[in-house]
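Whiteboard transcription, Tuesday session. T.W. wrote the structure tokens on the left side:
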């Protein structure tokens, strides 16, 4: 048994979470606990000993975790509304024949007429449910189909020429046959490369130059994008799902640097699936599925992101310190602790 412990890592479930902390030395304590609860032990083979401290500090997430409710400080949370772009021409042709995704004809694919109908319906929904008024910021992938979706759903009403504001989208942008969209009375929209679809191989996922986009979408903020040309897309290699997931986590880390608390993110199916798949392992399986299942075109799902790492430490705007003006406020249970009652009932 000792020789096996030197080569294998045992994870023990005590109630719902791990209550045993191990140092580098395995020692007799491991054997003792293994004997007591060996029926609930889960073996993770061939993990290096340097993983012990980290591995044993985790909750056991694969053992009927349903748990109860959790509480977090509000100022350490953000509300995000993930949106997949509406139907693009590449979606239609790609469903008929997967090879269509490789066709240069669908370079930076635009929305279909059906896609614009989907945009109109989501636009009505975000206004009728009150969401539109709550959104502080819209972040979009800098591809034609996502920017068309973002401005169509979250943009202002019809644009009229005026010297004090630019349109979010010019008329007929991307062969849309749509009128110009106003940038007035709507949240700001910024374009961010980190939330793009897989880089590489598929021409539909390759963007145009930023200077071209600035003409089509004059009021979108492109200042987060460093290169005018698309230097991230390569014709002879496609980003792996692991690389995309890592980029997605980098995007969420960047999101915490923003001061806005309620944000809409207009992006792509692959980005959403592979980024969000890292979450929900400590939840009920149905909640995990709700987080990670594939998005339909123009689907919106609202989520809460919680900062457990202190990376986003903005002060609360609603907390109140109390005791103003100050006065005695010792709670009764504190008084009980300071003055324990004897068995006879006297203090």
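and on the right, the sequence the group agreed on:
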């Amino acid at each position: 048994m000792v020789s096996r412990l030197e080569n294998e890592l045992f994870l023990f479930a005590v109630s719902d979470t791990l209550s045993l902390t191990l140092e580098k030395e395995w020692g007799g304590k491991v054997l003792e606990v293994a004997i007591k609860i060996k029926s609930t032990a889960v073996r993770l083979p061939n993990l290096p000993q340097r993983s012990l401290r980290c591995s044993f500090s985790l909750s056991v997430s694969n053992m009927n975790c349903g748990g109860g409710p959790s509480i977090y400080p509000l100022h350490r949370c953000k509300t995000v509304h993930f949106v997949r772009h509406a139907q693009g021409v590449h979606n239609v042709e790609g469903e008929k024949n997967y090879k269509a995704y490789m066709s240069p004809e669908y370079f930076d694919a635009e929305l279909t007429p059906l896609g614009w109908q989907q945009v109109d319906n989501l636009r009505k929904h975000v206004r009728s449910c009150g969401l539109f008024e709550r959104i502080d910021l819209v972040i979009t992938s800098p591809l034609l189909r996502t920017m068309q979706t973002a401005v169509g759903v979250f943009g202002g009403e019809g644009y009229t020429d005026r010297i004090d504001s630019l349109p979010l989208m010019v008329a007929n942008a991307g062969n849309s046959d749509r009128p110009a969209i106003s940038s007035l009375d709507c949240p700001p929209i910024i374009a961010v490369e980190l939330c793009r679809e897989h880089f590489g191989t598929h021409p539909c996922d390759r963007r145009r130059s930023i200077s071209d986009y600035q003409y089509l979408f004059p009021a979108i903020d492109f200042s987060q994008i460093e290169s005018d040309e698309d230097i991230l897309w390569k014709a002879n290699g496609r980003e792996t799902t692991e690389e995309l997931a890592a980029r997605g986590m980098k995007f969420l880390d960047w999101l915490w640097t923003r001061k806005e608390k309620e944000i809409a993110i207009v992006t792509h199916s692959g980005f959403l699936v592979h980024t969000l798949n890292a979450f929900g392992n400590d939840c009920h399986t149905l909640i995990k599925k709700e987080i990670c299942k594939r998005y339909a075109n123009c689907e919106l799902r609202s989520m809460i992101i919680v900062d457990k790492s202190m990376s986003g430490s903005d002060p609360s705007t609603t907390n109140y310190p109390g005791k103003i003006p100050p006065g005695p406020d010792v709670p009764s249970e504190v008084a009980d602790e300071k003055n324990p009652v004897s068995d006879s009932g006297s203090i």
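Someone added at the bottom: Strands lie at 8-12, 41-45, 77-84, 137-140, 167-169, 181-182, 189-191, 262-267, 300-306.
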